[in-house]
Amino acid sequence: MKRGEIWKTRFPDGKLRPGVIVSHEARNVHGENIILAGCTSRRTKTIYPTELLLEGHNLPVPTKVQADYLFTVKKQNLQEKLGELFAPEVEKINSALTSALQLPLR
Fold first, then answer.
1. In contact, 39 and 19? CB cutoff 8 Å
2. Sheet harboring 51-54: ordered strands across?
3. How many Cβ atoms from other residues are within 10 Å of residue 20's Cβ?
4. Which of 22, 24, 77, 88 is least surrounded by CB atoms within 10 angstroms?
5. Are strands 5-10 and 33-40 parallel, antiparallel or unpaired?
6. CB 83 within 8 A of CB 5
7. Cβ contacts of residue 27 below 8 Å, gap of 6+?
8. What is the reported pLDDT for 54?
9. H or E segment at 100?
10. DSSP assignment letter at 72
11. Rounded CA gap, 23 and 30, in Å?
12. Helix, strand or coil for residue 57?
């Protein structure tokens, strides 16, 4: 499990949906929890600065990653690896997280 991977995940609300791992690698390796950005296939016509549209990656329909929809889940809730973001997409997720959390730019 590493940053940028897309997993079918059981979220705290009980729903099974894709999520993108956004937590730091040390946490992913040594922790029992993972931080995910939730995904949705709804309202994909409009993409905000806190979102990234994904097509492909074993997702059946266009899906957007929502960097302002973060969850911490136990690793055991990750059901199936669907794919992995490409490096440019990881950079876009980083930008979306910076926007969503109003982090200062470096």
1. yes
2. 51-54, 63-74, 33-40, 16-21, 5-10, 78-84
3. 29
4. 88
5. unpaired
6. yes
7. 33, 34, 35
8. 96
9. helix 87-100
10. E
11. 12
12. coil
Residues 6+ apart with CB under 8 A from 78: 1, 7, 8, 9, 34
Q: Report the CATH fold assignment for 5-100.
A: SH3 type barrels. (2.30.30)
Q: Residue 84: in which H helix or E strand, if any?
A: strand 78-84
Domain ranges of the chain: 5-100
- Binned at pLDDT 50, 70 and 90, residue 104 comes out as confident
Q: What is the mean pLDDT of residues 89-98?
A: 95
Mean pLDDT across the stretch 25-54? 95
Confidence (pTM): 0.93
